[in-house]
Amino acid sequence: MEYFMCNVLVMGKTGTGKSTLLNYICDADLAQTGTGKPVTGEGIYDYIVKINNQDVRIYDSWGIEAGKVDRWKELISKSLKDHGAQKSIQDWFHSVIYCIQAGGGRVEDIDVEIIRQFLLDGYKITIVLTKADQVDENEEATMKKVISSELCGKAGNLSKRLNIVATCAEKKITRSGETHPFGKEEVCNAILDGWRDTILERLPKHVIAR
Fold it and tell me: Is the predicted pLDDT of residue 210 greater than 70, yes or no?
């Protein structure tokens, strides 16, 4: 059997904790982290890592910034063509991760637009609610419900391609106490499970393109 490596595209707005999440799930300092300013320059950066003892190629995209959305869309559009249905299945993006900050309390229109398009294109997408230690369980449940409703509609016809996971990617000492990381196993499982669904959903497009 030919060697297969899962390709994972990671997206999200600047400041959502995307880089911190990557370092957490990969057990390595892959991506620079910071506070208050973008730390991933324009472009898409790939890393080969081990997740649950399997080789995975992570494509870390430049964070979406206010005033630069059109430029970001151009970059992602080009990358999607480079990894599109006309290419070999091994070159596709097999799993897609989109980061939204749970502490922000809401999903914005740009998030809905981007995620929904990926769902419509047949990708299995996992929304990672980062910094989930900033919200309680009721707030988290409400946010998940709202996101699912906005993306999938009342009929929920896209829900089978959507997964939502809450995480905290770093240990913190705050005024109210100490928080510990959580959600790593769920994110890793979503990455390694999502590729099968993406391939099955997008295979007809691949056949037509070929």
Answer: no
